[in-house]
């Protein structure tokens, strides 16, 4: 049950499910702990999932749809981002997740796998037991889509994940400034550097990864986009030159979040022009 006036989930008592113009910024690390309390089970390294299927992205990919995130991005498309969702929700062990992913992959003839709908790094014990199973499986690759928070906090975690040859990481940058981060994620702006720190750590441990960012002109100004790319270029000109720039799609779940945030994006997109070449 949700308090529709202030956007707070009445199930958590402390953290927003929808970010509104009046929502006080939250500590994303505390939200991560709260989400972990609900969606991670340490006794058997299990995690909560809602479904397993093949998505059309990446040329077809077996997807484990999970629960739990440390951010409340206003452009998020996931319908199960919050850990209070109803419907079919169950804990799955790493072995069970692999079995479900392989079953979905065989039905559709795909060779890639991922966790989606949530932040996959939240349940560390679960992920670190799942990845070696994937490494020994028939999958050709595992795409780890992350907001970077946990890797930014803990380089040893980044190192453990980077050791698997089949793992490729996609780090999603949310903003190029504290104000942009707070406005679009609901979290304290001071933490906007955490994803950049994740990039730094992943470079240091030699991980296979690339960087994406929601630079949609309807959500991010040209000035902030330039700041974001400049900060990324300071870490790696190569990553900056190959930045995957995202466009906000108005899925029903996304539209609900945008409306709550007081953001009205119309159905057109002005394609960004490349910045001047870096010196």
Shape: globular
Classified by CATH, the class is Alpha Beta
The computed structural class is alpha/beta
Specify Rg, calculated over alpha carbons: 18 Å
Number of domains: 1
Give the low-pLDDT segments: 1-13
User: Which percent range fits the helix content?
Assistant: 25-40%
Q: How many distinct beta strands?
A: 11
Beta percentage is 15-25%
> Which architecture would the CATH scheme give at its second level?
Alpha-Beta Barrel
- Largest β sheet strand count, sense and barrel closure: 9 strands, mixed
**Distance between the first and last residues' Cα:** 52 Å
Mean of all residue-level pLDDT scores: 89
CATH level-four homologous superfamily name:
Aldolase class I
Order of helices and strands: EEHEEEEHEHEHHEHHEHHEH
Structure annotation, total helices: 10
From the 3D structure, determine the CATH topology. TIM Barrel
Describe this entry's structure for a reader:
The chain is α/β, with parallel strands linked by helices and 279 residues long. It has a single domain, classed as TIM Barrel (Alpha-Beta Barrel), CATH 3.20.20. 36% of the residues lie in helices and 18% in strands. The chain is built from ten helices and eleven strands. The strands form two sheets. Strands 3, 4, 5, 6, 7, 8, 9, 10 and 11 form a nine-stranded mixed β-sheet that branches. β3 and β4 form a beta hairpin. α2 crosses α3 (124-135). It is globular and about 45 Å long.
Give a quick summary of the entry.
This protein has helices spanning 28-39, 94-108, 124-135, 149-153, 155-162, 178-185, 194-205, 222-235, 237-241, 252-260; strands at 2-3, 8-9, 40-41, 46-55, 61-66, 90-92, 112-116, 141-146, 167-173, 209-213, 244-245.
């Amino acid at each position: 049950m949700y308090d529709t006036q202030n956007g707070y989930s009445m199930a958590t008592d402390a953290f927003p499910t929808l970010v509104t113009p009046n929502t006080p910024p939250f500590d994303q690390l505390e939200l991560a702990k709260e989400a972990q309390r609900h969606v991670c089970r340490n006794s058997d390294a299990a995690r909560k999932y809602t479904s397993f299927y093949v998505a059309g992205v990446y040329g077809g990919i077996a997807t484990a749809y999970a629960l739990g995130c440390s951010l409340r991005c206003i452009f998020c498309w996931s319908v199960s981002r919050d850990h209070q969702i109803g419907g079919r929700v169950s804990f799955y062990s790493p072995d069970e997740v692999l079995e479900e992913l392989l079953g979905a992959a065989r039905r559709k003839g795909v060779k890639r796998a991922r966790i989606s709908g949530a932040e996959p790094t939240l349940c560390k014990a679960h992920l670190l037991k799942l990845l070696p199973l994937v490494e020994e499986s028939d999958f050709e690759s595992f795409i780890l889509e992350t907001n970077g928070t946990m890797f930014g906090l803990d380089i040893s975690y980044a190192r453990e994940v980077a050791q698997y040859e089949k793992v490729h990481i996609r780090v999603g940058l949310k903003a190029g400034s504290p104000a942009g981060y707070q406005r679009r994620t609901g979290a304290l702006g001071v933490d906007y550097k955490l994803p950049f720190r994740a990039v730094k750590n992943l470079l240091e441990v030699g991980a296979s990864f690339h960087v994406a960012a929601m630079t949609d002109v309807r959500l991010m100004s040209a000035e902030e986009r330039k700041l974001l790319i400049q900060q990324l270029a300071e870490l790696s000109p190569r990553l900056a030159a190959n930045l995957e720039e995202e466009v906000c799609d108005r899925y029903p779940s996304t539209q609900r979040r945008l409306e709550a945030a007081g953001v009205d994006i119309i159905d057109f997109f002005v394609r960004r022009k490349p910045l001047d070449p870096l010196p």
